[in-house]
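#structure-requests
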Amino acid sequence: MSRFPTRAEKSIVIAAPASAVYSYVWNVASACRGIPGLSVSRHGADDTYRFEYSNDSQGPVTLQVRYTAKFIGNGKDKIRYFSSPTDGEDTAEVEGCVLIREIGPGKAQLTLRQELAPETPVPRFLPNLLRAYVQTEATAAVEAYLRNAKRNLESQPERACSQ
């Protein structure tokens, strides 16, 4: 299997206090709801989660990614996560960081930086063609996460403050 390492870093401004954004993001499974093709479940009791992603097939290739990641937060403005394989079924390695910065009264900047290296079963002559495709999918997933966070936090401000 070929691995296609990708890097994506995107930011978005959210009309919510940084503390509310942190609380929202720290609730990992809930924060990922609504992202097409992604399912998340708690995997153990130590802030470890199982992610499964499957995109709509684009031609002959369907990207299916499974990984288990451990999350470590500082309770204020930074959450790190990294691969924590447990059962041999993971098809990707991941490492990332979520940064939250207060940028004004009731406004925060949310940044997601992620490195993902999924395995993709492809013939040896196709890697260069698929590298751009995998990078596009990884970047789109980061953007979808940020849009989802903005929509959820701004549409229900009372929920954002109570998390």
